[in-house]
Amino acid sequence: MTTTRAHSFNAAAAQYAANRPSYPPLLLETLEELAGRPLRNAQVADVGAGTGIATSLLHARGAKVTAVEPGDGMAAEFRRNNPGIPLVRGDGNHLPLATASADFITYAQAWHWTDPAKAGPEARRVLREGGALALWWNMSDNSQEWAAAQDARLRDFFQHDSFRPASGEGKQRGGHPWTDVPGLDFTEREIPHTRKVPLVTHLANLGSHSAFLVLGEERTREFMKREHEVLSERFPDGTVEECYVVHVRLALN
Fold first, then answer.
1. Whole-number Å distance between alpha carbons of 203 and 58
2. How would DSSP label each residue in the chain?
3. What pLDDT shows up at residue 79?
4. CA distance 102 to 141
5. β-strand 127-140 against 102-108: which pairing, if any?
6. Which domains are delineated in the chain?
7. Which pLDDT score, from 0 to 100, does residue 158 have?
8. Is pLDDT larger for residue 98 or for residue 180?
9. Rounded to an integer, what distance in angstroms lies between the CA atom of residue 242 and that of residue 253?
10. Which of 103, 123, 98 minimizes the C-alpha distance to 48?
11. What does the pLDDT look like over 143-154, one tens digit per residue?
12. Is the CA virtual torsion 37, 42, 47, 49 positive or negative?
């Protein structure tokens, strides 16, 4: 199921690019602070780059960034959105990069799709001495009443399908994405941020998560129709303020 979910994004790459949230400027400042060096002119490998949401921010910060992406659909969407940024095909378990060639290796919403027993040593191989491995996830902030209620509805819905959605794809501490990498000591930070989007964008963002992508159109429409009705009452002007916390982990090689 994990492999199926990982590949599900390729058929929905345009939906992903159009509706997923980006990251706040403080994220890049935090990476620089924890790494003890600027991103400008740094050699950066953004692994599992997807459609380039994080890659484009790193590039704009002045990093010499190369994207690494295994999926055909995601890679094609990346190239449409970021024609000037180099992209190579591959994944974190077998990085197509030279030894000691990167100052940063970044994983935005992607580390949980790797096998850490392989991806950890690969990252250490490619990083230069003192280079930084940075992992982060955009996670829904369920401290708001409406968001907690939606999370409960999602969990109830997916209990009937033997798996739950990743409303932050792999967000549980102590689970797969938080597995330690031997030889690396991680520092963690949490960065809150918000965005205001039309209700249809909020629902399309939900629908771009792998649990829905493998569920099938009929069941997905069933959930989204009910959710639209519920949220239309909560947000009568049709605008949803989504609240997130970016969970960051960074370690020096």
1. 27
2. -HHHHHHGGGGGHHHHHHHS----HHHHHHHHHHHTS-STT-EEEEET-TTSHHHHHHHHTT-EEEEE---HHHHHHHHHH-TTS-EE--BTTB--S-TT-EEEEEEES-GGGS-HHHHHHHHHHHEEEEEEEEEEEEEE-TTSHHHHHHHHHHHHHHHTTTS---TTSS--TTSGGGPPPTT---EEEEEEEEEEEEHHHHHHHHHTSHHHHTT-HHHHHHHHHHHHHHHHHH-TTSEEEEEEEEEEEEEE-
3. 96
4. 33
5. parallel
6. 2-252 (3.40.50.150)
7. 86
8. 98
9. 35
10. 123
11. 999 999 998 999
12. positive
Residues forming beta bridges with residue 187, ordered by sequence position: 250
Write out pLDDT tens, residues 12-40: 788 888 899 999 999 999 999 999 999 99
pLDDT of residue 162: 42
Q: Find residue 153's DSSP bridge partners.
A: none
**C-alpha distances in Å from residue 172, one per residue of 125, 140, 186:** 27, 12, 17
Contact of 8 with 74, CB cutoff 8 Å: no
- Residues 201-212 pLDDT 10s: 999 999 988 888
51: which 2 tokens?
Answer: 């459609």
Q: What is the pLDDT of residue 2?
A: 57
Say which residues have a Cβ less than 8 Å from residue 166's Cβ, sequence separation at least 6: 112, 209, 210, 211
CA gap 77, 247 in Å, rounded: 26
Structure tokens that stand for 82 in this block? 């970021």
Q: Which residues of 29-46 are buried (b: 16+ CB within 10 A; e: fewer)?
A: ebbbebbebebeebbbbb
Q: Is the pLDDT of residue 168 over 60?
A: no
Q: Name the phi and psi angles at 27, rounded to 5.
A: -60, -50
